[in-house]
Amino acid sequence: MNYPKELCQLVIRSMEVIETAPEVVAATEKHLFAAMNARIEKAVKAKKNWKGCYDLVTDKEDEETTFAPEGWPECEDESYGAYYTLTHTEESGDYEWLSCATGVMGAALCLAFSVGIDWSGLTMKEYKKRFESFYAGNAVLQKAGFSLSPSKKSIARPFHFAADKLAAEYPDLDEALAPLDAALEDLFKAHGEFDKFVKGLS
Q1: Is 131 exposed, middle or buried (0-12, 13-18, 19+ CB in 10 A)?
Q2: How far apart are CA 90 and CA 106, in angstroms?
Q3: Which end of the chain is more exposed for a tag (fewer CB within 10 A), N or C?
């Protein structure tokens, strides 16, 4: 593949940055996600009778940020039977977390609703059909910007941050995280819809 001369020249001049980039990206991701996890934890703890873990992009064992109301079911292995999670959209593929956070190459983060169906008594085919029907008939979710994943395994509220705002505030991130706040607000407003779906599976 032929690249523009100017791009090749930029790479040559920037090799020191390029060589150290993986370590810098990893450190920056951890700092950003620590701030995001703390923001989500604070929002969830402000609700009554909710539970969660807030460890996505950390060195901790769970490596996930997942939360749910206390009354939702659990699977046999005591994992959440239905839950919300911070992740990236399926369309984001194998991009770095930082790429998803800044919307590079069309990647995006999301707050997603998912169900582990072991407790429901449904086959995966039955569940996907019911899940797809639930989303297709729910104007509340669609209006709020939620989308059904291509695999029909989750319903996600995508978001990403403006790179220039993140860079300007780094490392003391606050206002730059506003898109996460907006996604959380939409998720909590739509919680009643998801709650009805979960209870309908019981």
Answers
A1: buried
A2: 11
A3: N
**How many angstroms separate the CA atoms of 167 and 102, rounded?**
10
Q: How much is the pTM?
A: 0.91
Tokens 């969830």: give the residue.
Answer: 44
Distance CA 169, CA 22 (A): 21
pLDDT digits (tens, 9 = 90+) for 152-185: 889 999 999 999 999 999 999 999 999 999 999 9
Q: Taking the CA of residue 85 as centre, how many other CA atoms within 13 Å lie in the half-sphere pointing to its CB?
A: 22
SS3 31: helix
Centre a 10 Å sphere on the Cβ of residue 37 and count the other Cβ atoms it contains: 19
Q: Which helix (H) or strand (E) holds 115?
A: strand 109-115
